[in-house]
Amino acid sequence: MERKALNYLNLTLVTLLLTLTLFSCKQQASEVESGKAPNKVEALKQEVMGIHDKIMPRIGTLMHLKKQLNKKAAQLDTTRETDKRQAAALQLAIKDLEQADEAMMQWMRTYEDPDLAEGQAKALEYLALKKKEILTVKEQMESSETAAKSLLSSK
Question: Do the Cβ atoms of 87 and 76 come closer than 8 Å?
């Protein structure tokens, strides 16, 4: 008799746990399908995209600077030692601008909205990585822009 009661209790607990698990999964899937992303994920996504949106328009500035550096390099007399050094510095700055541009393009090619079906923790981890990457791109763009402007303002 006691064994039957224990089996009944176990069966009841298992049924209750299965019901709760299924309800929980259905609710999470429902949130994903309805587009209601967890607030933390959405907030981090907005932060990452905000950084991108702020620096993306500066790609045009980088390409304009590259054009100006190329023009300045073409005007140098590379038979003179000082012009050779300046030409090398200009070429390095051009390369840095190109790398900053490519870093942004690469970031955009690899960015995808996080898959909430894989869980909030995975989405937050992915977005934290993309934030770190876009901040690196931002730093690369800023430093190459500063260096290019400095070379253009020097004689």
Answer: yes
